[in-house]
Amino acid sequence: MESTTGTAAAACADVRKPKLDAKALLLKYSFVIVFVLLILYLAFSTSKFLTVSNIVNVFRQVSNQGIIAVGMTMILIMGQIDLSVGSLVAFAAVMNAILLKAGLPIPLAIPATLGVSCLWGFLNGFVTARFRLHAFLVTMATQTLIRGMTYTMTGGYPVGGLPQSFFGFGSGTIGVVPLPVVYMLVIFAVGAFILSSTTFGRAVYAIGGNEDAARLSGIGVEKVKIGVFLVSALVSAISGLVLSSRLMAGSPEIGIGWELDIVAAVIIGGTNMLGGEGKLSGTLLGVLFIGVLSNGMILLDVTPYMQQVVRGLVILGAVILNSLQEKR
Question: Rounded to whole angstroms, how far apart are CA atoms 250 and 110?
Fold first, then answer.
């Protein structure tokens, strides 16, 4: 009798024990595997890839869009999207350039630019939350509105003649690490802390998972939405300031089409477009993946037209993998 009971208990324990699903494991880490294979392929294909100068260059190239990707990750986790980020980059760059050229000191011009840029984020969040609209529609409108105002402010021409002291803001280094890379890593660290360790971050996930349930549980959905869009506008403006410092000009042309590249990097990093799931660590890998892929194609002399084809295929593959992981 005891033997039978023992056998039954062992069988039950064996049933309860989770089994290692190789297919699920491979699917879960497929992006990391592809990223490692890409790095190995480029390392063996060109001797220039793994040089210190090229690695630093890759990080510098992705830093501006990487900064914005922090806000976009929060937006997508919440189940929304922000199409106005590219226009906000140009707006911040131009406004800051105008203020500096007018003689306003750098310590005043930068906060003023960030403050006014955040008003656009407030507008996006308020209209989205107050009227229960999807942010795709709202930010599609403000994308055009902000870009149009930026062109109007400059007459369509870049604003130059910035003080030389502003150059170091976006072009300085700490050792061999460019300041834009430092800004990006710090913003990623702060964003990761907010999402993982604060009530606000947990509310973002809750709203993305089920907005009605979040509202019924007492979460201030409207306030959280406005807060997330403020974060998106803030990081977009910071990116615009960094870029204008490197160019020593504010141009209404910069940032065009960035929103699509940034959304692609966030999705590649594993954030679910339907909301409720995503991590900034994955977004950082997604941003670096896009940067390494672009850098590698340049080193291998891939034509610009074919580069677009490859990037499109990569994004399509990432969307399919995202869907398969969600179903799994």
Answer: 13
Q: What is residue 123's predicted lDDT score, i.e. its pLDDT?
A: 97
pLDDT at residue 28, as a whole number: 73
d(CA 120, CA 143): 10
User: What 3-state class would DSSP assign to 178?
Assistant: strand
What pLDDT score was predicted for residue 279?
A: 94
Helix axes 280-299 and 30-45, enclosed angle (nearest 10): 30
Distance in angstroms (rounded) separating the CA atoms of residues 264 and 312: 9
pTM of structure: 0.90
The reported pLDDT for the residue numbered 198 is 96
Share of the chain above pLDDT 70, in %: 92
Distance from C-alpha of 46 to C-alpha of 26, rounded to nearest angstrom: 28
Residues of the chain with pLDDT under 70: 1-21, 27, 326-328
Structure token digits, residue 144: 């055009």
What's the token pair of residue 155? 């007459």
Chain-centroid distance, C-alpha 58: 16
Task: Sketch the domain layout of the chain as residue ranges.
Answer: 51-327
- CATH architecture assignment, domain 51-327: Orthogonal Bundle (1.10)
pLDDT the model gives residue 31 = 83
pLDDT for 4 = 52
Distance CA 213, CA 302 (A): 49
- The amino acid at residue 16 is R
d(CA 251, CA 76): 28
Q: Round to whole Å and give the CA distance between 70 and 279.
A: 10
Phi, psi angles (nearest 5°) of residue 159: -105, 110
The C-alpha atoms of residue 117 and residue 114 are separated, in whole angstroms, by 5
Q: 28 vs 40, 266, 326, CA distance in Å?
A: 20, 16, 10
